[in-house]
Amino acid sequence: MSSELDHLSSLVVSGRLSRRDFLGRAAALGVTALSANTLLAGAARAQAPVKGGILKAGMVGGAATDSLDPATWASQVPYTLGRNWGEQMLEVTPAGEIEPRLAESYEASDDAKTWRFKIRKGVTFHNGKELTPADVVATLERHADENSKSAALAFVSQFESMKVDGDNVVIQLKEANADLPYVVSDYHLMIQPNGGKDNPTAGIGTGPYKVGVNEPGVRHVGELHKGYWGSDKRGHADQIEIVVINDATARTSALQGGQVDMINRVEPKIVDLIKRVPGVGIRNVPGKGHYVFIAHCNAAPFDNNDLRLALKYAVDREEMVQKILSGYGSVGNDMPVTKGYAMFPDDIEQRKYDPDKAAFHYKKSGHSGPVLLRTSDVAFPGAVDAAQLYQQSAAKAGITIDVKREPGDGYWSEVWNKQPFSMSYWTGRPTQDQVYSIAYLSKAEWNDTRFQREDFDKLILSARGELDQAKRKDLYRQAAVMLRDEGGVVVPMFNNYIDATGTRVGGWIDDPNGELMGGHALTKCWINA
Q: pTM for the whole thing?
């Protein structure tokens, strides 16, 4: 019972359980209100932030081509670094709710087409300039420019107009969208002075840390922003540092040796080993992330749907979950959504490994000869092993897959979203609209399968503006079936986020939004004395 109460009290401290609910559940366990409140007070004291020191992370997902321009962020290091120096209007909490950040409040019209965001006062950028609603509008304008190449373009292209009205930013949408607060929480939409139009790579934001050292592919250092508006809850260390360590063994050794305080992407196959290391804690969090094989629907031989179906039936999903994820995940169904999403279509048949069906569609496609698959250690933990398993299961269907192992540095700039058949990962998004919009709408900058279908686009755009939840769910179901049966993405598995921390780290909160607390570990955690 003690361990359960400890867990419940930690949920209250982290904001994931109300005090009232805690007292109710404690009473159900036979604990008096006085004892429960005493336990809660102790948990709160234990979670009190400690200020000062240097907090370090060793991370995979950094390259020499990384930029400070939020529009370009595609991998873990620039994304996590950006969480330290930049902020959006709103943010998604670990519980999946909306938290005000640079916008202190928001409201929508009854038809969900007009939205007003009240911009927080007293916030300064790292260059000393005070944040204004005009900076917010300029940021949205920059990402909405069709020439911006921003990954957020698919989201903000739905904006009809944006304007400043006193302390407010008013956004008029082309169609209704009840999910707009989640849209503006996208991590590419970091608010910059004048929207970043003057210099998007300056790394100037309103976050708790200023960019001190920026050596892409090597290391990044953030210095505490003394004028940070939210210093009571974020920015506890005097300095944060990200060391790029793309090699899994070296990353683990750095944590064990105390060179870093936390690492991302612990390989599932060594989790049990790491658990036995003194002073190291595993952080295992189920989420919406998924590992993928992506084929360009507009490039031969993948422009033939029978070949794509052959590749989908040729993957042994159960084997991958067990051997690559060591059970730390679940089977995928060739669509980027799981039961974790609202309005998930749970009546769609699960696709299974079927060498006979794979052979049938492969023969029907008319293709002969090997299929080249590009992979890398940075694609996801165990990606090279997964490619080899895929190679073996496909061979049983008479399909030859040649695996080419690419170097990690440059993989995200030269292979992903450029080569016709490669491996990758997605962290997932808070809503179905976002996950479909960012990667599967025809004009999306990150449409890495080149799945370009007007009828699919129409389904997603219709669902976005549909306020009847039953009708909206049906539209998402139609989209999921279309993508599953005709798209270019093979989704064999959904992964847990597995990170690890040293004993010095305090304030950790499990966050299903992504690795290292959704990218916030360095801003929200602290160094225990």
A: 0.85
